[in-house]
Amino acid sequence: MTVYDQLMAHERQTQLLASVAERLGWDQETMMPPGAADQRGDEMAALELVLHARRTDPQIGEWLAAVKPEGAEQAAQLGHVRHSYERAVKVPARLAEELARICSTAQGVWAKARAEQDVAAFLPVLKQVLALKREEAACYADSGHDLYDGLLDGFEPGETGAGLAAMFDRMRPRLVALRGAILDKPAPKGLTGHFPKDKQLALSRELAQAFGYDFNFGRLDLAVHPFMSGQGADVRITTRVDESDPFNCIYSTIHEVGHAMYEGSVSPALRMTPAGRGVSMGVHESQSRIFENQLGRSPAFADWLFGRMRDTFGEAGAAEATAFARAVNRVRTGYIRTEADEIHYNLHVMLRFDLERALIKGDLEVADLEAAWNDRYQADFGQAVDKPSNGMLQDVHWSAGLFGYFPTYTLGNVYAGCLHKALRAELPDLDAQMAAGDMKAATGWLRDKVQVHGGLFTPRGVIEQAAGHAPDEGPLLDYLEAKFGALYGL
């Protein structure tokens, strides 16, 4: 075996073990009995200790020093190995193990606290998670990153907190102005009635398949906070059900299908290699967000969905397709990020981004987080938080230790805006296809332009080669103004 082959064989085993750990996480959120939480934390910690040892094996450094890449694919693979190795060796095994244990436990504590509206019950374990994440962030600081940038680099290599903050500052004025113009117009009606759980799930399965999801290699389950798990030939999605609001289930499903299609569509030749997964969370979110919004909430697709909704649930408060499309795209101030319309969504992300940067920097302590959240929400959205599950307890991310993840949602929206503009240019009859419920051309374009490449390009590089230009926020904002301008008669 060549040096490169030896390194890739080592990486393949590491990827397979990481996949087992991910499956344990999926089980914890969907199937695990609640009494098993402490044991699962120990299991996750034990497996993380094995993974950390493999990721920091000195032999990797020797292989990297000796190997010379042959071609672009090998260069990309080695780039991922080097990035992972250089990050991993900075984190002590003790810290990696303890993070896995505490974050596994914290997710169960968070879910219970959220259900019981009990912030005080969650704060002690969140304080532990934050202390460990600050310690982890400090491990990366000697590379030139500030504390938050070191964590962000694990989700979106090449981005910085300052750079994202500048982009968000450019976006905010146009988003706020558009929101104001829309809220001055009469609000469209939402759906009314009872939407049984079994019918919602049956329709969600149908929609998942319409967007290309193959249940031979996946499954749909319920979770408190919807997510996707897996890669390659085993990619699982989750959703949630509110029997008074079917859009929650429908669009959570479509969103997670976007993630799943990315992981499942990576070239089989790349599977279980360092470049065999989505290249970053920003690019991942570009796929889930374009599935959910530019495609799934388009007036054309809403026209087809309207018929399926009537077949499944009856009239449900929308007597004709135009009213249904307006209900799908209804803009209103709300508490929940995952249920937010396309205008408010990014404002939710910006709130979380600023708060978690302050937490990591030490400018905000856990004891003051709820008040800071509520004050910021009041300032940005003009209403008071009514209960913790609509405030700081709504998202799973901080309990899971995912500091640095939140800004990738808006970055994904920006990337999706660029991809959608290019997609429209290349598929001029897209609306006619979507109005017939035919998503194959759109999802096929995304597969060929983005998903099949896995991690062979940089995050911004894969968007640039697909869209034909360097990514920026302009196409997203133009799309939002055009779409909602037409829907609301602005």
Structure, explained:
The chain is mainly α. The protein folds into two domains: 3-152, no CATH class; 161-488, Neurolysin, domain 3. It has 20 helices and three strands. The protein has a three-stranded mixed sheet. A hairpin with a 2-residue loop joins strand 2 (228-231) and strand 3 (234-239). The mean pLDDT is 95.
Shape: globular
The main β sheet shows up as: 3 strands, mixed
Low-confidence stretches: none
Spatial separation of the terminal alpha carbons: 65 Å
- The total beta strand count reads 3
Active site: 256 (proton donor/acceptor)
Pfam families: Peptidase_M32 (PF02074)
GO molecular function: metal ion binding; metallocarboxypeptidase activity
Cofactor: Zn(2+)
Helix and strand arrangement:
Layout: H1 3-30, H2 37-55, H3 58-66, H4 72-88, H5 93-116, H6 119-140, H7 147-152, H8 161-183, H9 197-210, E1 220-222, E2 228-231, E3 234-239, H10 246-265, H11 281-295, H12 299-313, H13 321-328, H14 342-361, H15 369-381, H16 407-426, H17 430-435, H18 440-449, H19 459-467, H20 474-488
Parallel strand pairs: 1-3
Antiparallel strand pairs: 2-3
Helix pairs in contact: 1-2, 1-3, 2-5, 5-6, 8-14, 8-20, 9-10, 10-11, 11-16, 12-13, 14-15, 14-16, 16-19, 16-20
